[in-house]
Design goal:
The chain is mainly beta. It is built from one helix and seven strands, in the order E-E-E-E-H-E-E-E. It has a five-stranded antiparallel sheet with strand order 1-4-7-6-5, with helices on one face. It has a two-stranded antiparallel sheet with strand order 2-3.
């Protein structure tokens, strides 16, 4: 499995979206419980602006085809996790600067390739 090593800008954002099972009862009552062992997946909206690495990031993401997981260490984390990237773009601003905007989603599976 490949490893993504490029560093995003500090304006990148992490989002946690817990998976919760909810049972609805009468009179408005409900009961909630975490859905499974890995019920707290994260996603990151990342921005890359370093021009020398953008030419390497886009081919890397294209090669994964949005389906192949890869290793990545999120900002302020000390361990690698497995993520997929199913959405990225490469807009050019008014000054001709190209950026890469990508969303990494944490995945929990047992694939190693």
């Amino acid at each position: 499995m490949e490893t993504f090593t490029w560093i995003p800008t500090y304006s990148s954002a992490a989002t946690a979206k817990p998976r919760v099972l909810t049972a609805q009862y009468g009179d408005g009552y409900s009961q909630r419980t975490p859905d499974g062992l890995n019920s707290l997946p994260y996603s990151w909206d990342l921005i890359f602006i370093e021009q020398t690495t953008i030419s390497q990031i886009l081919p890397f993401l294209n090669a994964q085809l949005g389906a192949t997981a890869f290793y990545w260490t999120p900002p302020r984390w000390t361990t690698q996790i497995k993520v997929i990237c199913q959405k990225w773009s490469s807009p050019i601003n008014d000054f001709g600067v190209t950026r890469v905007l990508a969303t990494f989603e944490q995945v929990f599976d047992n694939s190693t390739s």
